[in-house]
Design a protein that fits this description.
about 500 residues; six-stranded mixed sheet; globular
Length: about 500
Amino acid sequence: MNGKDLKKEYGDYQTPDKFTYEICSLLKNKMNINPAVIVEPTSGIGNFIRASLDTFPQAKHVYGIEINSEYCKICRDRISDGRLQIINENFFSYKMNFLPDNEEILFVGNPPWATNSDLNFNLPVKENFKHFKGTDAITGASNFDICEYIILKIIENSIGKNVSIAMLCKTSVARSILLESNRQNFPIACSEMYTFNSSEIFGINASACLLYIKMSTNDGHICSCNIMDINYPQDIQSKIIVENGKLQTHLSDVTDLDGNCIFEWRQGVKHDCANVMELTPASDGTYLNRKKETVSIEPTLVFPLIKSSSFKKPVIKAGFSKYVIMTQKKTREETNRIEQIAPLTWKYLNSNIDFFNKRKSSIYKGAPPFSMFGVGDYSYAAYKVGISGFYKKPLFSLLYNEAEISHPVMLDDTSYYLSFDNYSDAYTCMLLLNSRKVQQFLLSISFQDAKRPYTKKVLQRVDIIKCLEHIDLTELEETEKELGLSKYITAKEYKQFASAISR
């Protein structure tokens, strides 16, 4: 098995020797760890094992658990120490009955940076390990991060013991662990994140950290996590607050707008067939698809499309360069009606049916031909206030089709939006969300190193009622000027919006 295959099969990123020594030195000198027992749950070729043995000479026992027998042999050949025991087992099923109840234990290492869908056999038995309910249980158990699973299992099995945990992981995984630990009320005395350059250490592009957790032996609980750069471990850069199942960055002068949005944020349309479904208009009234083919179909089901990269202005109403064929008005609606209302479109879709049949997502199984997801009455609202999930600065745009109101603007599935029936309410909401107080609040509850800083879960926390309580008309007028918009907002529009919400 070559290196590329190992990375795919095991989520395998061997930690450089120098870095393992730096981490062990940090644990000894800053955290004052003095372990009697050290465990590396996915020990690989033994880099962390060797650094641990050298850094903590007082340790009586060091255990390395590793599923790959080749790695076990390499580790035994390169490290000769009577305290070391290499165990060729799968950590997911191995019972660690050797852990003492009354001595200090250190778990240290670099678990696989992969989800269970990335791996073929190096997997735990599928289980609902976060104890979700309903649909969340299905999705949560079917696809999860292996590193997160390992660390949470260590935490769960360390309750009541004198245990320190120091694991390399993606920062998104670290945050998820903090959130889940809070949700399950795990007794944790201290948690810290030490960020480092994963490109320099592992040659990969991902925000990463050393997650340090000290278990509490007296049912104590912390609700914060300090964040430091691993090169400057004494300097606290920021802090994450973990309370009531929510994460928030500790920032000064942030207005409390946390709650539940009175509107429901929606995700844009999903079709997984851009080559066929996404079109560019031509001057002669035809379209070009992503395959550069000329497409002559009726305009009946062709709607303007805004992709994430297009959120560059606060109002987008014309000059659309992308369009999408909308095959349904609601999820799982039968699509054979297209043959009657747009026969040329029906013929075009059927001529490309092989592309649709190759879609991998299970959501299309058993669905009508050419199905989409993220569609409903809300999709066809004339006015929308949308945001790209990818942008670091949250710019909210008012979207509508000025030329043809009956063909509203659609968004792709990397975007999120609220639907409105009238321009005034949509415009007022756009200003409200772009106001300084909302922007600062969003920055405090989102994480800029995430692939999508702004998800439905994040946006749904913006309580519009609280926004109205804390943001007055003057602030909206200032926001309007800052966005370079002509004056429109008045007390009448603001009062109308507030009244519509209170009904």
